[in-house]
Amino acid sequence: MITVLNQTVASKKKPWQIELSQAKLSLKELLDYCQLPMDNTFIDHNDFVIKATKNYLSCIQKGNPKDPLLLQILPTIEENKIIEGFSNDPLQEKSQNPQTSIVHKYNNRILVVATGSCAIHCRYCFRRHFPYEQNRHSTKQWLKTIDYLKAHPEVDELIFSGGDPLSLADSTLSLMINDLENILTIKTIRFHSRIPVVLPSRVDQDFLNIFKSCTKKLIMVIHSNHANELNSAVKQACLSLHEHNFTLLNQSVLLKTINDDSRVLIALSHRLFDCNVLPYYLHLLDKVQGAAHFDITIARAKQIYTQIQANLSGYLVPKLALEEPNESNKTIIM
């Protein structure tokens, strides 16, 4: 039985909800927290505001303008440059958007844009220009998603993405998972989420209880680019997910001045494994307008990757990949 989403429950906000509600920052607040002076290369970006959780901010080295975690969230004037070959829709998702809130690019799986909300705004985000206002997720759209799944039995995996799907309320997630239990063709439910890394308090017992009786395969693909993001709270969240039948994988993006160094990526793989997470993909940057300053060449990426392969066991080596528009699968570079 399909139930109504977005129910409001009169209850006290949980710690993770409070932290999430406080994630929006002004440029001055971010710089003051990081003990850095204002610089004319930094900007306040009205269209893509600064967001970062207290947990993430606590991992930034104060007084260091080159801190790799800070550089992922700090807006600079480089974002205003219009660079040829970069676009607002680098993966041409609009052409793979058969109905509101669904992206059906790959044959056996669909991606549900469950929300436009995130706990952090990564400056290189390939969906920073995504038309979330035209893809608002609601009860009506979820009913259409269920109908879409029934009409497409070739789809055996549903991916919750966004935004960040873990920013949804427990009640909403619970109803969606329960509805998917009745779709026999769906074998796997996958989440793509940065929240276990930036807001680990979200992975509380109430969240884990949602999946207690779930009969589907559960996958949580987290997103970490640097070992410094993975503090003890993040490790505990990952271990809890693993204990509750989630397979944990990690996707990273290869970013100039942040992790374009084999030593940094080797350390990340080791730390992920400590958290029961397997490295999955190392992505080349999706060419989204506003993020060109993070890009590196394929030749440089291959050089870094060769060094990683020479210094890691095979199971700790992510696939070096590029996602291209209108392709039926990711392009594996190495």
Structure, explained:
The chain is of the alpha/beta class and 334 residues long. It has a single domain, classed as TIM Barrel. It is built from ten helices and eleven strands. The strands form two sheets. A nine-stranded mixed beta sheet has the order 3-4-5-6-7-8-9-10-11. α10 links the parallel β9 and β10. α9 crosses α10.
Summary, kept brief:
This protein has ten helices and eleven strands.
Total count of strands: 11
Oligomer: single chain
Give the CA-based shape: globular
The secondary-structure element order is: HEHEHEEHEHEHHEHEHEHEE
Number of domains: 1
Radius of gyration, in angstroms, nearest whole number? 19 Å
CATH fold annotation: TIM Barrel
In CATH, the architecture is: Alpha-Beta Barrel
Structural class: alpha/beta
What percentage of residues falls in helices of 4 or more residues? Answer: 25-40%
Low-confidence stretches: 6-10
| Strand adjacency order, main sheet | 3-4-5-6-7-8-9-10-11
* Average pLDDT for all residues: 93
CATH class term: Alpha Beta
Features:
27% helix; globular; single chain; two-stranded antiparallel sheet; 11 strands; 16% strand; TIM Barrel; alpha/beta; 334 residues
